């Protein structure tokens, strides 16, 4: 007998809840410290129900890291590398990226954990690395566009893009305290200087 729409919605909500609590647990207790039992208790569902959605802890961990990348790519990649006004496009991109990074402390903690132990989590790291490479390539194109128009100083565009994403991660990890939340918006002009705008 096929599932009703209500049953499908409830299953989707349970899966989302599992993913949410698992993200928090993996970020705070690490991979070893997180168990399916802890996840089921935090999600307030039965132990066996977790296996309706995920084969084991390894798959759950993989999904917690990789599934958000789809939404993140829609948001982080949403700028035009070939913009007629690359400086304005950079400013809009930076402002958008800062807002995104400001809101993803828990997930970013997991990303840093995986990057720091990439040989231990090779399949998850590969997904993250591909995502990061695509983002760097797109940012590099925008930087080259600005350089070709004589609006940005000549420098290695890929290195600048790498410094930029490293800066975003660094700001997020160094400003976990709520005292700094009001400062995020003021970083845009300082971050823009990283790209070497030529002021005439």
From TrEMBL:
Key words of the record: DNA-binding, Repressor
Pfam family, one: TetR_N
Domain of life: Bacteria
Keyword Zinc-finger: no
Domain annotation HTH tetR-type: ranges: 12-72
The organism of origin for this protein: Piscibacillus salipiscarius
Protein name according to UniProt: TetR/AcrR family transcriptional regulator
Keyword Transmembrane helix: no
DNA-binding region, residue range(s): 35-54
